[in-house]
# Entry
Amino acid sequence: MIRDARVLQPDFVPREVEHREEAVDALSNALAPVARGEPAETALLFGPSGAGKTCIAQYTVERLREEVLDVVTQYVNCWQNYSRFRALYRILEGVGRTVDVHRQSTPKDELLERLADYEGPPYVVVLDEVDQLEDTRILYDLYRTQGLSMVCIANRETDLFAGLDDRLASRLHSAVRVQFDKYGVEALTDILEARVEWGLEADVDREALAFVADAAAGDARVAIGILRSAAREADRAGADRLTRERFEDAIPEGRKAVRRASLDRLTPHQRTLYDVIAECGEIDPGELYGQYQERVEEPRTRRTVRNYLAKMVQYDLVVASGENRGRTYRLADGT
DNA sequence: GGTCCACAGGAAAGATAGGGTC
DNA sequence: GACCCTATCTTTCCTGTGGACC
# Structure
């Protein structure tokens, strides 16, 4: 059943992309000056989760590496590397300048100096989930770094620009923008069909894949998660055919897998808050804090809990509605 | 209208952990 | 091993906002 499991992984970058030719062209054009040894234009990729932003960025950068001999690239997930220090560390890692950098004892200004001293080939940095950066001043520092080009990925343009100072915002307004919309059922079906062709030895009809695409509501991560879950179950059962029924059974697990990836990033205290909200449906902050206090041995202060909740809202796990005394929390749709 | 209260979120200080240096 | 430095997390203090109540 499963010939190549890699193509069913969420971070797989295909050799050919489906239905995103315009985005690939726009990004390729922005990066084209690199081939002449010049810095590329800054590119901003916006769109909802599962719309293919990360995949297209990595695909385009990979094609660039095929065409240009002297180019260095690095992918930085700003969700995981949200502090200025971590993000800079990852960027320096891309050019091999972290040999004697110690995570706890090297001032971040020194990291910046090292980056400024970089004199190698053009360097393209993909900053994924850039709106998660704690300190967006790093973008200004990168913008000013000679020979370094940025591809910034975020869900919404307003989320990114809300956190920027005026100086940087005005510079980024001239950057190349690529907007991604959710995939339609047809497009998502094509993507699934290609994955089946590359990675599975199975009989799957297009109608069943269209059913999966519809269930995923335009989110490629969810669609591929459902496909992966169904393929795994069929493999275990020794089946050689993926039917609509099997996909129907795989939908909860496929969705759960995507959600699990987000929940795994929560600390135990954050997870307790998430569980309380999950059980109560919609809850006000006072009640939420009370229940949280009862469930953990050493509860954090209210202020820290507010920080946790703000982070979970940023992660799209929780939705905060209303202001001040009218504030309530509930789980985000689909979680 | 004035007061109280619950809440959000910024700023600064404190606590902690990890690594380097002597 | 003691001390220093730094990043990160947490707490404390504070201000602003808006609903409820008198």
Chain A has a mean pLDDT of 88. The domain at 266-331 of chain A is CATH 1.10.10.10 (Arc Repressor Mutant, subunit A). The longest strand of chain A covers residues 148-154. The radius of gyration of chain A is 22 Å.
